[in-house]
Amino acid sequence: SIVLVRVVYGKQYHGGESYAGIRNQGNTCYLNSILQSLFHVRGFRDAILENAHENEPKKRRFWQRKEIPTVEIALAGVFEALAHNVTAGTKELTKSLGVDPNIQQDAQEYLRLVLEEISSTQGISTSKYYLGQSERYIRITDHEHDKLVDQGYKGPPLETRHTEPFYDLSLDIKQGNVLQHLKTSIKELMTPQHLEGDAQWKTKQYGPRDALMGLDFIRFPPILVLHLKRFAFDFERGHVAKINAPVAFPLSNLDLSDLLHDDALKSDPPPLYRLHAVVCHLGSTGESGHYYALVDPLCDGRWLRFDDNRVTPVTVNDVIKEGLGGPGALGSAYLLQYVREDALPVLHGNNKEEANIASSFFSSPSPPTSSASAPPQHAAGD
Questions:
Q1: Alpha-carbon gap, residue 242 to 233, rounded angstroms
Q2: Of 304, 276, 281, whose CA–CA distance to 291 is shortest?
C-alpha cells in the first residue's frame, strides 16, 4: 500500500492512503470547509503547529484542567490530525469559538473570525498570508473644487483618506440568470458613491460639499479570499434567500494589476493569482443547506473534494460546474481562495515529500468514476 509522508514544521507525519477529512458534529460543515482551505496553505499551518509545539506546557495544562483551549491550540489539534492523515474532530475548536455545533453558521463570517482570533497570537502572523490593504477616500467633486478656486482657494482638491485592512473582499451578486464575471465584481467595489444633498461631505473648514466616496486598493495579499454575497434577506418570505446567479471565475491568470492605486506598494510582486480553493454551498437559503470545499492542494490542477469526512478526487470541469451556479444548479461557489503566483511556495515549500502526497494520491490504480465525481447530495440541513 502507499504510505504518504507529509513534512510539517520539520517533522514527518506518516499517514494512510488518502488526504483526511473532518467529522461533522451536526451542522459544522461550514467550519470543516474553511479549515481545509486554511490547512492547505502550508506556511500558515506550519506556523500554527510550530506555535503549538513551542507552547506544549500550555497545551497540556488545558487538557489536564479540562479547560476550554485557546483558538490557536484547538486549531493546532485539528491540523495535527490532518497532518497524520487522520480524520479530525472539531469539538475543542467549536468550544473555543463559542459556537453551537448544531446550528448552521456562515462560512465567510467564521473564516474571518478564525483569522482575527489567530492574529492576536504571538508568533503567528495571519497578516503575512491573508491581510490586504485598501484606502477609503472622500474627495470633493471637480465642480466643488472649481468653486473653491474661484473663491481664492489654491490647494489641491480637498480629500480625506483612511486605511482599511481586509481579510477578504465581499462581492455583490445580482439576481437573475445573466452570467457575471469575477473581476467585474471586484472592480465594482471601486465605483465611487456620490455624496450630495443631505449626504454632502461636511468639511471642517469649507462646510458641506458635494463629494465622491470610494475605495482604492493599495496591496493585495498573497492569499486572496473573495466572498460572493449570495445571501440576502427576503422580506416577503421572512428568511435569508439564496442568490444562485452564475458567476464565472478564472482558474488562473486573475490579474488585478490594473486595480492597484498609483500609491500602491511598488515593492510588491504583480497581483497575478491562481485558484486554490472553493467553498461551495448547496441549498436555497442561507439558514440551511450544506458547505463543502474543493481544493487544489499544490495548485497543479489536481483537485479534491473535501465533504466533511469524505475526500474524493474531482476534475477541473467538476470544479467549474459545481462553482458556477445558475439555473438548475444544486449549489454554487460561496468563497474563492486565490494564491498569488509568487506566493505558491507557501503551499508546498521546498520539500519534495509534500508534492509526493498528491502524486501518490492521484496515481491510484482505480481512477474515480463519473459517479464518484458527482457533487454531494444533501437535504435541507447537514
A1: 9
A2: 281
